[in-house]
Structure formats: structure tokens, C-alpha cells
Amino acid sequence: MSWPPVRRSGARRPEREYEKVATPKKGRNASAQSKPGRSLALILIAIAALTGGMFASGHTKPRLGIDLAGGTSITLRAVPEAGNESAINKTNMDTAVSIMERRVNGLGVSEAEVQTQGRDNIVVNIPKGTNSEQARKQVGTTAKLYFRPVIATEVAGGKGAANPSPSPTGKPSDQPSGKASDKPEATDKNSASPSATPTTQGRAVTDALKADATPSASASDKPGSSPSPSGSGDTAEADANALQAKYAALDCTNAKIRSTVGDGVKASQPTLACGKNAQGQWQKYILGPAEVDGTDVDKAQAVLNTQTGAGWTVTMDFTDAGAKKFADITGKLAQNQSPQNQFAIVLDGDVVSDPYVRQALTGGNAEISGNFNQQSAQDLSNMLSYGALPLTFKVDSMTTVTAALGGDQLQAGLIAGAIGLALVVIYLLAYYRGLSFVAILSLLVSAALTYTLMALLGPAIGFALNLPAVCGAIVAIGITADSFIVYFERVRDEIREGRTLRPAVERAWPRARRTILVSDFVSFLAAAVLFIVTVGKVRGFAFTLGLTTLLDVVVVFLFTKPLLTLLARRPFFANGHKWSGLDPKSLGAQPPLRRTRRPSAPVETKEA
Amino acid sequence: MSKLGNLGARLHRGEIGYDFVKNRKIWYGLSILITIVAIAGLAVRGLNMGIEFQGGAVFTTPKNISVSVSQAEEYAEAASGHDAIVQKLGDGSLRIQVAGIETDQANQIKGQLSEDLKVDSEQINAELVGPSWGEQIANKAWQGLGIFMVLVVIYLAIAFEWRMALAAFVALIHDITITVGIYALVGFEVTPGTVIGLLTILGYSLYDTVVVFDSLKEQTKDLTKQTRWTYSDVANRSINSTLVRSINTTVVALLPVAGLLFIGGGVLGAGMLNDISLSLFVGLAAGAYSSIFIATPLVADLKEREPAMKALKKRVLAKRAQSAAQGGTEVHDEETYADEPEDAAPAVVGPRNQPASRSRGRGRPSGKRR
Asked: Name one GO molecular function term (chain B) (predicted).
């Protein structure tokens, strides 16, 4: 086959096109070319702003994932009840996440994070320093939600006593404890320690415990199920006293104590519990046996009640059995004095709400009103719904990484990145010489942007840098460098066709731009699909790849191109110095052509 | 700019070049052969699926442990009742794999191991995987692959045309088959890291193909208006003119991956870095090959079946036959201008027209350019 000699035709055609095209577009071209400084300034300002933001927010390092920092990562998969596959939906998964978050953080871990991934996975990341065994147990078990009558409650400060009297208004019972903390004097008056000394209140509580234990046991038709009511009155009293003593000693402000307070207590036994009140203080409770449990709740919703002006409320619908039980307990509670007219909603041993009851609620539904805002109402309704969640969770994978290994892996990743970057830089230097400085600077800008964004995205969207993400960043060096290569090769092609540097830089740009956009789009598409569809480590990888691809476009448009435009004005590059990487001779441009173009060069400069 | 720069210039002007399209049958044959070997390897040997795909546990002990590999293997088998594989890693730590156990058992085994090995159990890294987890990762990966392919084919069909989309698709399948086949044949362990690497190849392989297609699209814009070149000629020229870029891109992409592979394999011994970079390395090489040798010739093949292109080819061949019959200098003038019929008036008149003979000899020694 004859090989097409394109040299002459190739040299001529674009020339013509250029003149043809450039004239009508003169305005645009001129503006694009005359303001390279503006783009450069823009991107430098962006870097400065991001760096500033990074230091201002105090997050100067990207948050590290479990595999780099050490810790435990557990992946759970939701398993729906048979025949109820639609139970895996966003609402249910979100509810489950919020419940697990509570549990894991109940262990006293501050930075544990729980997120959904994909459709039916929940990932729990617990940083180092936590007992992974305990964490796994906490996360893997099904939540227990109970409604228990309140027998006594008080704010659990270090000194721990407060006035438990409720306010008579329609406010929730949390309120009085706030009052109490406002008036610390009330403590003394009200017999601060109900346990040791048999004060009136202490006795009343003991009586209540006795009184409450027995009927509840009979009501549930299982007299033998719990030891305390089945025994004699003396045993019940002894148990009650023991509980009293524990109650007095209970310090709810201590996370460790809090996480174990209700452990091992059966639903049919009275128990101690902790909960946060509306003022954010820890409050401790003695609670009677569970009267209603989470599976009795059919549905719970946060509702903005505009009719009564109660603001955000939480409504509950009970199942048929639940409605009956709930009517019974509220009927009983309504006759009692405060705080014994309250019931506590206990999730996994924590009191999440303790509304009081004014009358028997027999309708099969109930409304909890109080100082809710939208968020707190939704949180409560989520928790209430959890008891009714038709989902169980199965541990699919669990990874425990010691801090030592995490550190090693991070170091290895960084070294690999450094080696990769160095190799790329050396290759670029050898091949593009002077031009490679544009590429290296662009890579540095890209690296700076990536780093600052990663550091800022940590707190902003919970991004954590894991090992695959580091890999993604290293692989992205290639993609980023490729954009420069596409552009540089275009510029060199233009020079080979006999153009001087400045028009070559401008002419090469629109074509290189299109190629870069099209290919980056494909790369970004791959990253986006991976991020949405997959689970686990793949996501970290996809995220960095997508982020760096976007940044690549930004850097090429706002940095590489303007920088090259500016440098093209320097004699070192414009005259095609031997080391500039743009020497027309060594690129194989046609000397006669260059001579012919020379006279017309000023014209192009004007255009530019 | 040395030899490579010259090479680039000569490729650019079409002075030298490899006729990828004409020899496409050789490359198709080669690819089909590799693919058959890959599929056969996959069928016969199967993939060496890592622990993540079977369910089980991987424990990694701290460095400088005194227990020997065989001893650790005994301990692990005693503790689990299953076969255990123990490797010594580059940094002196032991990697103990026990397959086929449930996540609950794994915790007991870990406790037992920490006693036997006399290491604090919090110092042992553990990766416990339920039996369905790997399957799930793989399923999701396939799902992602499917969605991505559909989207990208649609995108390429819109941005370019369906023939290119189809060719890119074939090239992509080709890359993935080769990579998977190599894994089967060599017996590398398949882990989630491998899957990540494989999925990345998707984007990268296409990235490369897209750049060649972009140049092809640009060069074939006004193809039917001339009678000098057939589609295949132009396709060939596109490949050759982007060849330097393709080589550079591949080298620049492979260098960091090679760095990863070196560190991941050499220093850490095994793990995520190694797995990702290994599959990337294989896949990138296959991707560079396929975008040049498979995707573009395939587009040319498909294009040549189009009636317009057939007609063009006929015209071109007729013209060539005619000029061959006439012979002489006329041919060369034809050659010079024929591909730009609208380009009647040269932009720069003068010296350019005179050395018409310069461009004639494609066989001319290249030294003449200087």
C-alpha cells in the first residue's frame, strides 16, 4: 500500500484553517490568550484559600481510614425477613445506621463512624483503642426497645441528685431536671442520696418497686419468668434495696459505666438506666419491668403538629397486641404521681425518651410532644421504628488492623507514591526537557489541590483516606500527566507544521482540550459508577480516582494552558532553545516553512 | 529531542509508519489466540480465589515473631481444625490464612493463636470474611462493569459513532479477558484488590482508545470530499500520529504502577497495594495494545462496510489505477492536493509550492529533512 505523504498537505491545510477560523473568533481567542494571568491567579487563589481553610479548620491532614490508622472495620449486611425483601430501603437502613451509631458510640468511642454503603451494607469503622470483640457484639446483635415505667429519676451529675418533680404543663418530664440544675439548692432539700438513708423518697421508691413488680408479673401472665415478683415480698424488697443502692452509686456521666448499666437484665425485671435529658445532661433512672416492647410498635413518625401548636411531635401506632398493652400501662401510670407517671422508652439499655402520661391511651396510637425540633423528633421516631425493623444484620467481614501495620501500610503507600512520581518526573524531564517543568509544576498544583481537598473532605463528608484511595491517587498521577502529554504532543505537531510557538500553543489548545475532556469524562464515568455500585474498599479507590480526574481538568484548563501561554512569550521557549523541548529543528520542522512563516509572525502576534 | 523526537516528527508527517490496518488480520489472529489461551486457562485452571471469596480469616502477626512458619501452621490448624496457609512476609511478620470458617469461630481462633504464638491478641491483625462477602464484592463489581459498559457505549455512540463504541467495547472485553486469563494461567491470587485493579482498567483502557478515536474522528471529517485516501488509510495515519502519545501515556501510567508493584510486592510482601498494582500492570499493558492494534482497525473494518465508504474506496482505487496508468509527475501533484479539494488556493504562496518534489518520496531517507 502506498503510504500517504502528508507532509506538505498537512503543513498547508491547518495553516489555512487557522487563518480562516482565527479571524472570526478573534475576540475569543484574544481574550483567552491575553488573560492567562487571570486563570493562574484564580487557581493560585483557590490553592491559597483551600490551604487557609485547611489550617483554619485545624484539619491539616487527611483523615486516615482504618487500614492506615489502625482499628476495626466491620461490614454488615442487612438480611430482610422472609417474604419482605422490600424492607431493605433507605429509611430502614438509615434507621439502622443511627441505632448502630448510638451503640458503638455508647462504648465510649468518640470517632466511630457508621455509614450505609451500596444498597444493603452498613460499614462500621471503629478507630484503634477499642475492644474489637465488644464492638462486634454490640454491632451484630439486634436492638432491644422497651417501654418501661419510671420509678425514680434524677440528674446524674458527679454529685448526682436533683428534684425529680415534673412540671404540670404539657412539657416533657425532661424539663424539671433542667430546673434542678439551674437551682442546685434544691438538691439538699430533697435528700440528695435516696439510697443510704431511708428518706421518704427512698422508701417511696422501694414501695413503688415492690408494688410495681408484682402486678406487672401477673399482668404478663408469666409468674415464673422473673425471679423478683415470684419470690416472697421480702425477696422483692431485698432486690429493690439492692437496686436502690446501685442507683445511688450510678454515675451516668461515665461512658464505661453507662455502657454496662443495663447489661444482663431481663425485660421482666426492674433495671437501672441512663439517658440524656433535653438539657443534654445525663439523667439516671430506676425503671420497672418492660410493659411494651419494640415489636409492638407498628410505625413511628415525626410530625409537625400545627393544630395544637405543639411543634414537632412523634406519633406512634401500635400493633393490636401492643395497643392493648399500651392502654394498660398508660392507664396505670396516669393514676400515679410524678415521676411515676412517666414511662421510659429504652433502647439497648439507654433511655431515649421519658414522656409522662395524663390519661390512659387506648386508641392504639400515641403522640409524644415536648421540646422537639425536627431533628430530635426524627431521631426518636427512628429509634421507635427500629424495634419494628424487619431486618437483621449479619457480619460479612471484619478487619482489625493494628496501629503498627496501619503505619507501615501508610508509609509503604507514600513511598510507592514518591517513587511513582519521581519516575514520571524523570521520564518527562528526559522526553520533554524544558517543557516538562510545566508538567511538573502542574502535577504539583494538582497534588496540592488533591491534598487540601482530601484534608477538608474528611470533616466535611466523612472522607477517609484508605489504602485503595492512596493507590487511586498514585494511579491518577498517570492520568494527570497524560493530559499534559496530549497537549504537548499537539503543540509539537503544530511546530512540526512550521508554526512558531505562540500560535502553535493557541492552535493546539482547542483540539487537545476536546481530547482531554472526552477521555477524562470516560475516566470519571468509570469512577462514578464504581463509587455508586460497589462496596467497601473499592469505593475509596473510586472516590480518589474521580476526584483527581476532576482536578485534572481544572488544572489543565486553569494552570497548564495559561502557564504555557505565558512561557511561550519567553525567548527560551519561543526561540526553541535546544533544552526547551520545543526546538523546531530537533522536532523535525521544515526549515523552509519556518522561513516563510517568520514574516507573518507579527500578524499572529497581533491576533494573539 | 533525540531519536524519539525525530521519530515523532516522522510519524507525524507519515514518512514512516506501520500499517496497522493492513496487517490487522495478524493482530486479530494474535488477540484471538491470546483470548483462547486465556479462556482455556480460565476453564482448566480456574482462578485462584483469595480467602475473601471463600470466607475465612487472615491473621497477620507483628514483625519479628520468633515462631517458625511450620510451627505457626500447626498452631493455626490445631486452633481452627481447618487447613491453614502460613506465609512469611517481607518484614518478618507471618500471614496466616484459614479458609472456610465462620466469623464467630474466627474470634476464638484468634484468641487461641495469640496464646500459642505468645502475642497480645490486640497485636494481631485480623481479617475475617463471611463466605458471602467475596461473592458480594464480585457481584457488585460485575454489576458495576455492566452499568459502566452500557453507559460508556451510549456515550461513545453519541460522542463518536456506534462503530467506535462497538470497537471500544470489543477492545475492553479483550483487555479484561487477557488480564483474567493471565491471572488464571499464572495462578495469582484474586482478592478484592485485584477486582479494584481490574475495574480501573476499564476506565484506563477506554481512556487510551478514546484519544486515538478522537484523532481519527478529526481526520476523517471531510473524508468523502476527496478521492485520495480510503478510511483505512486515514485510520492508519491517526494511529501513527498518536503513537508517540500512546507510548508516552502508557509509560507514564505504568511507571507509578510499577512503583506500587515494587513497594507492594517487594517491601510489604503481600496485600492490597500489590494486588491492585499487579492487575493494573497487566491490564494497562493489554489496554495500550488493544487500543492500537484492535480498536482502531476494527473501526476501519466496520467503516469500510458503509456504502459511502465503499464508494469512496472504489473511487480512490479507480483514481490510483488511473494515475498508475498515466504515470509520471502528474501523480504527485495529485497526491499533494487531492485530499483537500476545497484547498484550491494555498494560504502561503511562494516558496512552498516550489519544492513540490520534496514530499514525493515517502521512501526518502529521513536525514534529508534537516
From this structure: protein-transporting ATPase activity
Q: Do B203 and A400 touch (CB under 8 A)?
A: no
Return the percentage of chain A with pLDDT > 70, whole number.
66
Q: How far apart are alpha carbons B271 and B274 in whole angstroms?
A: 6
Count of domains observed in chain A? 2
Helices (H), chain B: 2-13, 24-44, 51-54, 69-80, 103-116, 133-159, 162-186, 192-219, 231-241, 243-261, 272-290, 296-304, 307-326, 330-337
What is residue B19's DSSP assignment?
-
What contacts A128, CB < 8 A, 6 or more positions away? Answer: A69, A70, A71, A402, A403, A406
Using a CB-CB distance cutoff of 8 angstroms, which residues of chain B are in contact with residue A16? 343, 346-347
Q: What is the pTM of this model?
A: 0.66
- B172 and B286 co-located in one domain: yes
Residue A181 within any structural domain of the chain: yes
- Give the closest residue to B144 by CA, choosing from A327, A119, A469: A119
The pLDDT of residue A202 is above 70:
no
Interface with B, mutate which of A133, A471, A514 (most B CBs under 10 A): A471
A257 to chain B, closest Cα gap in Å: 23
3-state secondary structure A202-231: HHHHHHHHHHHHHHHHHHCCCCCCCHHHHC
Whether residue B200 is contained in a domain is answered as yes
Residue A378 predicted with pLDDT over 60: yes
Does B207 contact A433 at a Cβ distance shorter than 8 Å?
Answer: no
- A132-190 pLDDT per residue, tens: 666 666 666 656 677 888 888 777 654 433 444 333 333 333 333 333 333 222 223 23
Give B321's contacts in chain A (Cβ within 8 Å): none
Does residue A513 sit in the same domain as residue A594?
yes
CATH number at residue B103: 3.30.70
What's B24's domain CATH number?
A: 1.20.1640.10
Domain holding B189, by residue range, is: 2-49+134-307
Question: Chain B closest CA to A524's CA: distance in Å?
Answer: 8
Give the tens place of pLDDT for each residue, A551-584. Answer: 999 999 888 888 888 888 877 777 767 767 677 6
User: Which residue of B159, B245, B369 is in closest CB contact with A588?
Assistant: B369
Same domain, A459 and A529: yes
Q: Which of A249-258, A343-352, A538-547, B266-275 has the highest mean pLDDT?
A: A538-547
